[in-house]
Amino acid sequence: MSDQMVLVNFFTPVGRVASSWRMPGSRAEDLYGLDLPLELARMAEDAKLHALFFADVLSFERTGPNPDLTGYEPLTLMSALAGLTKNIGLIATASTTYNAPYNLARMLNQIDHLSKGRAGWNIVTSWTGEENFDTALPPKEERYARADEFVRLCKALWDCWSDDAVIVDRANGIWADLNRIRKVTEHGEHFRAEGPFLVPRSPQGWPLMVQAGQSEEGQLFAAQHAELVFTAKSELSLAQEFYASLKGKVEAAGRKRSDLVICPGVIPIIADTDAEAEELANEMANLINIEVEIPELESSLGDIKLDDLDPDEVVPLERLDASTDKNSRFENYRRLVAEQDYTLRQLLAFRNRSGGHGSVAGTVNTVADYMEQWFRSGACDGFAIAPSYIPQGFHDVCYKLIPELQNRGLFRTEYVEGTLRDNLGISRPDNVFRN
């Protein structure tokens, strides 16, 4: 474990707190243009954050449009930002269920070239959105088997070219040595692409491999493939258990513990005093639209029924146990009901404020204390910071919180020259190609 944190910005153009787009000055009017994400990216780069992480949403699920439920398309956004930033990593979410390996591998490889080695791929199997694609959503266990094959094929395609295949021999008219470019010969149950790949191997060899599953299947997949894992843990003890479990699985897979970086999400709400920060958190919570939030909570918990409950009634535990899909954040909510008798309104407020991630409201010192405790107690290697509201909430992170972490020696003050992997201390993968 490094003595300094890895810090990634969970890109939230209107803020991670679901109702924060209703705050004055939220910039909700500026969505989908480039000015807003570029401004946030440059703030993040000023703060020396390691990367911007772009999540993705593939359907409205069970509600209408809402700016915290829709989002920028990640690959096009990171392509635009690649030429307008210099050092910060750019991590895009892309599904193994709704994409073809060759096309996605080609786009990610190209972005890694365009950004001079700053691209990352957040690998997801998806759990919604099938109505928008000509592909039925497979059962969960099949989705991970499919994802494993998908990722292995992408790696084989990225390795089609030897690192020294491009020779630019002007005298003899040879740009690339065909003897150092091969086809892919592995054909799986779900995918087939022979290549050879059209694009030379990129600065990082492969984009940084990122994953966010917390289930047993997700952890096993991450142990095989991931180099950075995002996780949603709202309690220190749960984060410590997850950290130890996943690091152990990484070792069992024949890798070093340091080959994988674990970053739980944290949503800081910063003010001059702890009391003012709580007031700000309550102000955002009071903006909840219950009619919108209940269907979203029902869907995220596995299509359970909650809309017949009084908002101030304790949620019956058997309702949660009836879930058809106990996804990665399910246990976070179940524990609140089982151990703290949460009402429906409290669950909605919890989801609005944190979405299952850690949330801390207070002064810069209070937030830094929270992060330092988690970091030093074996709960994480760093954090995915999701600012509560935009733009002021992110400004406070970059220009107040980060300097405090730097003063404590917990975060770096400058970028390392090189790629995203270089900045994370993660080695460039060897090419399996051999002459």
How would you describe this structure to a colleague?
The chain has helices spanning 35-46, 74-82, 101-114, 140-158, 216-225, 236-252, 274-285, 290-300, 317-321, 330-340, 344-354, 364-376, 392-407, 420-424; strands spanning 6-10, 51-54, 89-95, 119-124, 166-169, 174-176, 208-211, 228-231, 261-270, 358-362, 382-385. It is of the alpha/beta class. The protein has a single domain (6-270, 357-424), classed as Alpha-Beta Barrel (TIM Barrel). The strands form 2 sheets. Strands 1-2-3-4-7-8-9-11 form an 8-stranded parallel beta barrel, surrounded by 7 helices. Helix 5 links the parallel strand 7 and strand 8. Helix 3 crosses helix 4. It starts with 5 loop residues before the first strand and ends in an 11-residue tail after the last helix. The relative contact order is 0.17. The model has no long low-confidence stretch (mean pLDDT 89).
